[in-house]
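Extended Data, panel c. Modelled sequence:
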Amino acid sequence: MTVHAPAVVPRSAAAERPADGVLVVGYGSTLRGDDGVGPRAAEMVAGDPRLAGATVLVRHQLTPELAADIAAARLVVLVDARADASPGSVSVERVAGAASSVDPVPAARAEAGATTHHVGAAEVAALARDLWGTRPEVLAVGVGAASFEVGDGLSVSVERALPRVVDAIAAIVGEHGRA
């Protein structure tokens, strides 16, 4: 699912909307329980008037092709489930992306082979930098997951966290709009 801003926005209106130039990517599998929190959050962001003008993408996983979308943005917010956090907790972290894409490949990844399952946020940000020379701010909003078991619903704790996730994204965009 891709949600785009209107094709033509008057110059004065665009200057007043802090979400212009913002890319929100919610990713994860909607068939693996709480892993679907990224797509659900993206759908909520797409309908939130505080984030009007943002480009919102729903993806199953991060892929190298996403680097082109990242390169076109001034601010990128990635939303995904976290297995290493308390269920329903919401965290925001800056994604480095400063490491060069020609840095040595970590041994674990070299042994496993390169697959799209190993493309992380920092690698996609680095691709955008290396291929297009851009350095948008990239932030990751993580939501602690209770379960990644097969199923199409979110746990109660993650479902309850969704409004906080959208508020966190709106706060990030608001801060960058004032910068």
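The radius of gyration is 16 Å. This feature is highlighted in the accompanying rendering.
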